User: Fold this.
Amino acid sequence: MRVTKTVLIIFFMLGACIVSCLTRDGSCESGPPHFRIKGIESTNMRLTTSEPNPWRKIIGNEQVLWDSFFISFNFQADYIAAIVSDYGQSLMALECAEQGYAGDKIGVDTIFVRTMYDYNDTYAAGDTINQIVLIKDWIFFYDDFEKFVPLSNYIVDNHNGVIDQQFQFKLSEAPGKGDSFSIQLSFILNNGEVFQHTTNPLVLTK
Assistant:
């Protein structure tokens, strides 16, 4: 009798795990597929030679060479379209993909990047510097630092829906002199929502 009870307990425990992980067609259920942007945050970064993820965070208002500098942006987000099973258990117990893997349903209309300080002879404080901003989704390896693309490419690729929850900026033009640097990002969605964020200042040098 005791053996029978033990077998039944194990059976129901395994059954609960299977229900929490599998859908009716036997596939593994992922987390909420979409995210909804609530805000933007950033971290100033410096390129390093480590692999993978060849970077380190810049702490405070330290000096950094402009051509090894980049900014990592992350969306503050809610995750939507979660599913609950008929058994009252969340199907997210054993997830196959990270939350928000399908992106934001709302696409980006345009992006403005404004320098908060004089940058060089071409760009003064308050100017839009989209022309010298390059963008990438993530730097996994050192060579990725050479694979940034113009900001306009990102807008086209994400017009029908924001794909990733992060992106990274670097500059294509040197500063005029070693001075404070910070930008204000305006990220405008197709539905008219506007998210603004100002990065922490630091000193860029040549």
About this structure: The helical segments are 2-21, 151-157. The first strand starts at residue 34 and ends at 47. The two ends are 79 Å apart (CA to CA).
